[in-house]
Amino acid sequence: MTSAADARLLGRLRRAGCVFAEDELAELRRWASDAAELTAWVDRRVRGEPVEHLVGHVRFGDLDLAVGAQTFVPRQRSLLLAKTVSRLIGHRRRPVVVEPFCGVGPIAAHVAATHRESTVFATDVDPEAVRLASRNVGIGRVRCGPGLSCLPAELRGRIDVIAAVPPYVPESAADLLPHEARDHEPAAALFGGGADGLDHVRSLLAEAPDWLTDGGTVAVELNIGQLAAARTAARAEGLSPVCVVDEVSVVDEVGDVVTDGDGQTALLVAELSQRTPV
Question: Residue 34 half-sphere exposure, CB side, CA atoms within 13 Å?
Fold first, then answer.
């Protein structure tokens, strides 16, 4: 494409309200097979389709993950969860990590790529998400089913870290979502259920103790306004919130959650204390 042609495409994206028009055009150009496909993709982007759905990929850290039309696109803010998982398993030999509610499997893919000695599994109820996650994480590592119930039975009591980005948006907050999410991503991957959006989080916290090893950890991405309720739910299941800090995060005033720099996204990190022998 000539610079003049690029300028015309960039102008169209800007007029359509694309805040990061330069970055979006660069990503479209990166994957387009030719000028005609690039122009066609810009046409569709102007009509509101997400860039990631157009090109079939999303950059997540150092990984290019496969995504598909009508699948949830991993957010860059979830890199905080991926980095936190790396810290949690850094001292463990051959750790076992599971990502329930995985979508296309960004956390599991990150762990599989950066901790090759680990055992990694992921689960999701959406068959299309499972298909794409299998491409990103590895064949045989992704199971179709809710929560942890579809995992191999031999993992029970052996998991070191359960890391998840469950659907957690309350239905009442639907109007606050970007139109790309409302129009092009499945509602089941966005809305968490219940008045506070935490139904899936609570169900995961209830399941987790049976699957975690002694000292195992659950790390869950949430909105910062949901942390108090999530913390209460974790403690009710025998999970103790702990503090994990890295170079891109801060700890809230309670000292037991990790909060991303955007001021809205946070992690609940909760540990299973050693079981009392029966």
Answer: 1
Residue 79 reports pLDDT greater than 70? yes
- What is the Cα–Cα distance from 55 to 38, expressed in whole angstroms? 10
Residue ranges of E strands in 125-260: 142-144, 159-164, 212-223, 239-241, 249-251, 257-260
Write down the domain spans for the chain.
Answer: 3-66, 76-272
Domain 76-272 belongs in CATH node 3.40.50.150: yes
In this prediction, residue 70 carries a pLDDT of 84
Question: In the numeric block, which tokens belong to residue 15?
Answer: 């007029």
**Cα–Cα separations (whole angstroms), residue 224 to 52, 106, 238, 253, 272:** 26, 21, 22, 12, 22
pLDDT score recorded for residue 221 = 95
- 10 touches 39 (CB < 8 A): no
**Interior CA angle at 151 toward 227 and 62, to 5°?**
65
Position 247 pLDDT exceeds 90: no
pLDDT of 1 reads 47
For residue 160, the tally of other CB atoms under 10 A from its CB is 21
Sign, CA torsion 85/86/90/92:
positive
Neighbours of 52 (CB within 10 A): 23
Q: What is the mean pLDDT of the chain?
A: 91
CB-based contacts of 27, cutoff 8 Å, min separation 6: 51, 55, 59
What pLDDT score was predicted for residue 183?
Answer: 86
- Mean predicted confidence (pLDDT) in 107-128: 97
Output the pLDDT for position 277: 45
pLDDT at 77: 92
Cα–Cα distance measured from residue 17 to residue 32, given in angstroms and rounded to the nearest whole number: 22
Six-digit token string for 244:
């994990």
Pairwise CA distance, residues 60 & 78, whole Å: 9
